[in-house]
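One such given next:

>
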Amino acid sequence: MAVILANDGIDALAKEQLEALGHTVETHHYNAFDLEHRIQEIDCLIVRSATKVRSNLIDHARNTKQLKLIIRAGVGIDNIDHEYAEANGILVRNTPNSSSDAVAELAIGHMFAIARHIYHANVTMRQGHWNKKHYKGIELAGKTLGLVGFGRIAQSVAKKAHALGMTIQYHDITGPRDSAINATWVDKETLLRTSDFLSLHIPYDPSVGAYLDKAAFHAMKPGMYVIHTARGGVVDESALLWALDEGIVAYAALDVFEEEPTHNEALYHHERISLTPHIGASTTEAQARIGQEIIQVIQASLT
């Protein structure tokens, strides 16, 4: 049976079920230094976004060759040097089916937050201000939502937005996709020029750089609302701040950042940005589903 370390935690029921199967499951969080030693003594490492599994950490695992599997409890695996791990005989898996609805609901929640000034009014009311006349918002119904990427999460956003009366268009580098969802593929230029809301759902590729850089903001429809729940780096934060100050972007909502935790004071002090600390998959239901998917991965990979 396997020795499993869930360094960023795991759903309690999934832990119990893994232990019932005979595995040893540890949920203590090790910092980067201590993990270098612990990783040499485990068969499986489970991480979320907090733990970075870079090549130097993988090299420590190679000392004993005991580590056989790394699982990202979530969708993106950009915090794992997965190609290096697999080149050294360590399987890397994720849980792509479990958190789509949770992230999609957060994206929709951020749309409401910036369209109706909910995030801002909540703060100023606690400060004793009754700024009713300051918070005239807009409705989502009748607006055009542009989706960057059209994978599981984006399609879940599309379904929910369509139910709210929004028109859905998307740009995906793979081209148009077959889908039962009423959404239209457009090129990037059209997406930026004609969307009222733009929601990002693509991984970050360092070789490509930011999808929304200064040139992209230049090409945008003035008054755009930007929602970012994908990965840090997909949006150039300095370019976003410039676009907000220039009036190109009316409001923005961010759940992910170039550096996490973010220390970009200009972001979290900007009154037209709604912020959350990378909580897209942080629901009870999503973590339970992720836990069950982790069990399936372990049974398929370590037996």
Summary: The two ends are 9 Å apart (CA to CA). Residues 284-301 form the longest helix (18 residues).
